[in-house]
Every structure is written in structure tokens, then in C-alpha cells.
Amino acid sequence: MSTALQTVASVSPELVIVFGIAGVLLLANVVLSVWIYRDAESRNDDNAFAWGAATFFSGFLGGVGIVVVIVLYFVLRDESGPGAPSVRDSV
């Protein structure tokens, strides 16, 4: 067997799965960060960039870090001003 064919098979399926999961989690982190940034911008929050950056960087701390930032954002976002109507406003 030639050397070129042997090097192609050196990537293990486990490594592909790990990189695939990491890629999906990174994509979800970016999407969530952009969503929080845009929501804060629509509410005229002066700290919109900080909320987006905190969400992005807390994603690298693990599940607990990003959950804490998201909960803080949802608790504190109503203080920054009105944005899109929320579910609570329609009742």
C-alpha cells in the first residue's frame, strides 16, 4: 500500500465527531450572542455590545457561565427601556 493512502485513514471518526460537536456549539454560541446584541440594540441599551461580548465569551466557560449571563440579561433587560412587545405586556 502506498504512503498516501495510509495517511488518509489516520483521522479517527471520534476526532471528526468531537470537531463536529465543537463546531455546532461554537455556531450556537455566535448565534445566541448576535441575538442578544440585536435585542439589546432594539431596546436602546447603551451596553448592547457588552451583553453580546459577555454572552460570547461566557460560552467558553461552559454551560454554567452562559446560563448565568442569559438569566442576568433577561432579568435586567426590562430596566433598559422598551423594545419589542413581550408576552407579559399582552396580558
Q: Care to describe what's here?
A:
It is a single chain. By secondary structure, the protein is mainly alpha-helical. It has a domain at 32-81. Helix content is 67%, strand content 0%. The protein has four helices and no strands. The protein has helices at residues 3-8, 13-42, 48-58, 63-76. It is elongated. The N and C termini lie far apart (72 Å). The model has no long low-confidence stretch (mean pLDDT 82).
Short description:
This protein is 67% helix and 0% strand. By secondary structure, it is mostly helical.
- Number of extended strands: 0
Overall pLDDT: 82
- Series of H and E elements: HHHH
Contiguous runs where pLDDT drops below 50 for at least 5 residues: none
Morphology call: elongated
Strand content: under 5%
Terminal residue distance: 72 Å
Tally of individual helices? 4
User: What is the gyration radius calculated from CA atoms?
Assistant: 20 Å
Quickly give the structural class: mainly alpha
What fraction, in percent, of the residue positions are helical?
55-70%
Describe the biggest sheet?
Answer: none
